[in-house]
Every structure is written in structure tokens, then in C-alpha cells.
Amino acid sequence: MQTYSKEKYDSLVQNIFQRFPSVQTSTFVEAYKPGLERMLEFLGILGNPHRDFKSIHIAGTNGKGSVANMLTSILAGAGLRTGLYTSPHILDFRERMRVTGDDSESARLVSEEYVYEFLTRWESEFDRLELSFFEITTALAFKWFADIEVDWAVVEVGLGGRLDSTNVIIPELSIVTSIGLDHCDLLGDTLEKIAGEKAGIFKPGVPALVGQALPETAPVFSGKAETVGAGLHFSESADPSLWKCSDLILKEMDLRGKYQKYNLRTALSAVDILRDIHPEIPLNDDGIIDSLIHTALRTGFHGRWERLSSDPDVICDIGHNAAALTNNFAQLNSCLDNEEYSSLIIVYGVMADKNLDDILPLFPERATLIFTTPSTRRALPARDIHNRYSDWCGKNGRKNPRLYVCDNVRDAVSMAMRVASEYGGRPLVYIGGSTFVVSEATPLFAR
Fold first, then answer.
1. pLDDT digits 0-9 by tens, 105-164
2. Nearest-10 Cα torsion for 203, 207, 211, 214
3. Secondary structure of the chain: what % helix, strand, coil (to 5)?
4. Can you tell me whether residue 16 is helix, strand or coil?
5. Cβ contact 148:81 at 8 Å
6. 3-state class of 179 per DSSP?
């Protein structure tokens, strides 16, 4: 076994990124390897660690990361050592696997030494089985969770659900947060098809919870639940026992986006189900409220309406599809309407596979827009975004002369800060459109 060193670790991780398809270095079509056979074979070699802990499985177009972190904080607050597996990461790929509920109030990441030992020990199997990067990291997370003996793990689906690598677990609760038109080339071009893929995480005898259902998707969920024998719950029609405290929680919670009210309802509905099926968990009201209020602090959650600076105010959010940006841009508009801020500067980049036509009408008309290109070959060039938005404005009678192009995120952030200074008053800078934009911008505001 090779001995760990920081230099060896960095080199090995970079090598894994390059050799095995990931969305950081490849397109989704290249990185996504549907099917569970490879995953199940590799987990068998590892001793089936995914069977060693109770779990909650969460899919959805938007909201699954927030709900996953809320539930992790709640379980940890109840005294349970809780693993959390999410994707993608912002700065360090170890952010994908965290554990909280130990002695520390905040989450800890898997150690570099553990990652190094895992990657070097099983590298030949990665090649033999032709695993994807996501399959490797999912197996790594499950093995780590088993080795440190977590009580529970909250597992976020990577893409879709039915054929996702995480769909090897038999959870205590399956959750689908929302359905939207995203990754249509892989999951289907209708809401019904996408709902069918995400409902693929429903398991026989396992309660299933749907956060937001649409007329097109509700029958899909109901049909799948009936077919597999899963008790189905819809949080929109539920009356969570702690919903009476929702205003207090949302006011105090360190997840600040207004869209969190939808995720909170799903999380509170999940709590009621957990109380029914696992009454031994000490889920008392005060503890749940405190855990929700301190979700980001306890789990180390980043990139959701996160404040990066207060001079001027800089907010980042990884919302990247039309459904998420509808909420985010509406909140930005309300900041101007309420005169909370005197001006708005948006740094925006997007992946080429997103439906930009649905996003263009959402841009706040009063904003200064700085289009940028994050350093991934999946990105749509900033000049292309500029040209398409300019064309859209011309065709739809919108006048927005404050458009700029910066070919990298660092320059775009510098321009935004310079423009904010020139405007004076109380400007707001928003950075988003893609996880890649946020991940490159965040270190520029290192505290």
C-alpha cells in the first residue's frame, strides 16, 4: 500500500478526475453511466457497506440538496451520527461526503488519508469495471459511512433516480422534492417521463414523500407507488405538525432563499413520517426547530443564497435551471422593489445543455448583467449568452444596455465589484447560473 502524502493525494485525485468521466471534466452524456450492475458488483467486493446503516434517499430537480441538509441537521440534532452524501461539490470533492452528529457541532469531511487509501487500494477495480467518477465517489461514501459506523445516512441522487448509482440502497424513506425540465436528453423530454425516472427510487414497503406535485406528475407518482407497494404522501396536501412554526424557522434559518419555504414543508412532512416509523428517535419540537435554524452551520452547506461579502453585499446561489432561477430572480426583483438595495449586478454563466430560451425572459430588467464562462468545457461561452440575450431583448422590446462579457469568472467578479463601487448607494451583487460559476467565485471572497 502506498504511503499518503499531500502531493501524492493531489496528484491521485487529479488523475481520477481525468481518467474517469465526471461532470467536472466531461459532459453529462459522457459522465452519466446508467445502470446498477457495476455499482452492485463493486459494493459486493467492498462487503456491501450500503447495508450497514439506515438511510433516506432524496431525488428531485430542485430542492433535494436543501432538504437533504435539513434532514441531516435534524437527525444529528437528535443525537444520531449522520452521514450526508450530496453532489456536486463547490471547492473540494470531499464535500460530497460529510458526517455530523459527532462531538463537534459542525460537519467533518472524509479525510484525505482515507480517500487516498481507498483510491490506491481499489484502482484496478475501477478500471476493470469501467466505473464512472460518480460511481467511485458513491462507493467511497458508503464505505466510509460504514467504517465510521453512522447511524443514518441521507443520500442525494446524482441524476434521475431509477438508474442512478445511489439507487442500490433500501432506505427508510424515499423523497422526491420537485420535478422540472432539466437534463431532458438523459431523463426524457416531458415532465411525466422525468417523474417516472425519479419515482424509480420508490421501494416496496418504504414510505415515499413527494414535495411538489404537478397535474402531469402526480399520477406518475401514484401509479409507481401503487405498483411497488410504497405508501405515498404529498407534502403539499399534508399538514406537518410543525408547520405552525414555519414563519419563525424561515425568519431565523441560515438558509436564506425564499424558495426554502417549499423545502421546509417537505422536510417537516418527512419528520412526521419518521416519527411514525421510528418513534425511538428523540425528535422533539424544540430540537427540530433549532436544527433547522442552524442547518448550514451544522452541515457545512454552501452555495444556496449564501452571503460571500457584506461590503458590498454579495450573494451566490447554484440554482441553474428555469424553475430555480424563477424563484431566485423574483427574490432579486423584490429586493429592488422594496428599496432594500439601490442597484443589482448579476454575474451569470450557464452550461451549454441548459434551456437558455426558458431562462432569458427571467433576467431582472433593472440589473446590470455580466456574462461569464467558467472553466469547464460544458460551459456556454459568455459571448454566446450575450448575443442570445441581446437578440431576445430586441425581439421582445426590452431595453437593457448594461450588458458585459468577461471570459473568466475572476474577471467577471472583479468587474462586478468595480461596477458596484461606481454605482454607490447600496448595491447587491448576485453570482450564479451554475455550480461551476459559484465554485470559482467563492474562493475570491475567502475570509
1. 679 999 999 999 999 999 999 999 999 889 999 999 999 999 999 999 999 999 888 989
2. 60
3. 50, 15, 35
4. helix
5. yes
6. coil
